[in-house]
Amino acid sequence: MTRRPFPLAVPTELRPYILDFHWALELLHALDLPAVSLQVADLADHLDLPFWAYDGRPFQLTPHQVAAITGHKDLREIELYAAEFNREVAARQAMASLEKRTASK
């Protein structure tokens, strides 16, 4: 199997969490690995890592930053509204691109 490198520059603080290559999801799911229970508090530090993209650039926002801006109570709410926000940004960018094309004709 050929390893395909991960195409983005990963920030230093995310390198322990993001692999430097793409993996085959079906092979990953086929592994016989033990289930491990964790307390949510054990993962609290992840909320300060910039996993989310902003303005078309990856690794810009942390869940805590989004929560501070939006006032959402939990990660589920943050993810829901972050997805909506990203769609809105993409739509604005697409409209701006169309307007440029129309103006240049």
Helix-strand layout with pairing:
Elements: H1 25-30, E1 52-54, E2 57-61, H2 63-70, H3 75-103
Antiparallel strand pairs: 1-2
Helix pairs in contact: 2-3
User: Topology as H/E string?
Assistant: HEEHH
The share of residues in helices is 40-55%
Largest sheet: 2 strands, antiparallel
| Integer tally of domains | 1
Gyration radius from CA atoms, angstroms = 18 Å
Report the strand count. Answer: 2
Return residue spans where pLDDT drops below 50 for at least 5 consecutive residues.
none
First-to-last CA distance: 48 Å
Beta percentage is 5-15%
Number of helices: 3
Shape label: extended
Q: What structural category do the secondary elements indicate?
A: mainly alpha
Query: What is the mean predicted local confidence, pLDDT?
Result: 83
Sheet with the most strands: spatial strand order = 1-2
Your description of this structure?
The protein is mostly helical. It has one domain (12-103). The protein is built from 3 helices and 2 strands. It has helices at residues 25-30, 63-70, 75-103; strands spanning 52-54, 57-61. A two-stranded antiparallel ribbon has the order 1-2.
Give a short synopsis of this structure:
By secondary structure, this protein is mainly alpha-helical.
Task: Give structural attributes.
about 100 residues; mainly alpha; about 40% helix; about 10% strand
